[in-house]
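Task card 7
Instruction: Convert sequence to structure tokens.
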Amino acid sequence: MPFSHFLDYLGLEKKYSPNTLTAYKADLISFSEFMLYEFEEKDLAKVHYPQIRNWIVALVEQGVSNRSINRKISSLKAYYRFLQKTGDIEFSPLTKHKALKTSSKIQVPFSEAEITQVLEQIDTSDFEGLRDRLIVELFYTTGIRRIELIELKLDDVNLAGRHIKVLGKRQKERIIPLLPGVIANLEIYIGKRADVTAREKTPNLFVSKNGIKLYESLVYRIINNYFSKVSGKIKRSPHILRHSFATHLLNQGANLNAVKELLGHSSLAATQVYTHNSIAELSKVHQKAHPRNSKTD
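Output:
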């Protein structure tokens, strides 16, 4: 398989997720096909920056966004770093490349009222309703990623210790505390879950009514379907619930470092993208409460 050594390196040593590996592979195949078609170049180790620039221009002309192009170039940079590491090349052709400018991508979180409305409207009289409500609760009260929720095992839930163990990006474990109300609902769900998994013996916490592990698009649909009934926001996804978790904590005065640890971010820079909403909230409070706001000069 093309790029197999590189992908093995990312998967085994860097602990990249299967989805990330798939994206890297697709980017490299797309680039290699372009090099072959435009320059009849089969060996990517011999490619020069002007050729890469041609690929970037072609992507722009195809209507690919700057953000997506930067992600593709990131895949390419990683590949050339690997070739340097293995001694196949001395210098990367992307050493002096500068990322394309992108506009800041502001995600609009759900309001507390919208989340409360969804939780109150979910019918928990059957297994799927009980499961769906718990999925919404866990996303909102723990801030976990969609893939982390899907891969969460029954053994990762510690009801006595009041926490869950989450395996995040690059196989990094973190412990996230659970709220009392979530623990109570988990206990009910786990009891019902035992009935539907009696035959399949699925280790994952969240399963279908047939006892099978959930898949990503289904989890997305669950969140999108419920929130489309109460919210007019364009994006209604599990990530927006994660975003809401972080924003609402910060609005309530939570420490940025603590939120970083709960989210499983490796740096504060990644967490700071969630601060714009808390700053907006502080601005409202400031304007409403400050005595000078009602005075004119």
